[in-house]
Amino acid sequence: MNLIKRFISYFTLWERMLWLSSIALITCSFLIFRGSDPVSFIASLIGVTALIFCAKGNPFGQCLMVVFSLIYGAISYGFAYYGEMITYLGMSGPMAVLALISWLRNPYAGNRSEVKINRLSRRETVFMALLVTAVTVAFYFILDYFNTANLYPSTVSIATSFAAVYLTFRRSPYFALWYAINDVVLILLWTLAAMEDISYVSVTVCFAVFLLNDLYGFFNWLRMEKLQRQAEHTDGLAT
Predict the structure, then answer these.
(1) Considering the entire predicted model, what is its pTM?
(2) Phi/psi of residue 112, nearest 5 degrees
C-alpha cells in the first residue's frame, strides 16, 4: 500500500493521466487485435511504464528499457524486421545499460531519482552526426544482406535509434525528441506489417502511444533543465 502511495505521489496528475490512458489504449488494442499474444502486450506495458520514468529522469526507466528491448527484439524477429531486432538487441538494450550506469553516476543534487541534465558541445554534436551517418551506412548493407523487410524505413529507424540512445547515454534532453522521431518511423513500419497481418495493429498503437510519451518526456526534460540551471545559478549567487 505504501509503495502504491509513493508511486501516486511521485507523478503529477498529468503524468498519472498520461500513463493510465496509455495503458488503456494499449489494453484495448491488445483485446481487439492480438488477444492471442500476451508477449506483445506485456512488452508494450513495460515500454510505456519505462517512458514515464524516463520522462522524470529516473534511472529505473532505463532498467525497464533493457527488458523492453529484449522482448521487442524477439517480436521484430518474428516479422523479419532484422533492423529492429539488431537495433534493440545489439544497440538499444546495451546502451540502456550504459545509460543506467551514467544516470546513476550523475544524480542531480544527490537525488538518485533525477539525473543531472547535460548539454552537448558543438564539437560533440558534430561527432555524433558523423557517427550516426557511419552507423547508418554500415547497417544499410547489413540489413540488405539479411533481406530485411521494408529496407529503407528500417535503415532510417537505425539512424534515429542510434541518435536517441547516444543522447540518452549523454543525458541530453534531445534524446526524447529523437525517440519521438523514431516512433514515427516505427508507426510506418508496423502499419506496413499490419497491412499483411492485422494483429500487428496493436504494435502500431503501442508506438503511437510511445510517441505521445516521448514528446512529453522531451518537454519535461527541458523544464527540468531550466529548473536545474536556475537552482545552480541561485546557489552560485549564494556562495
Answers:
(1) 0.89
(2) -75, -5
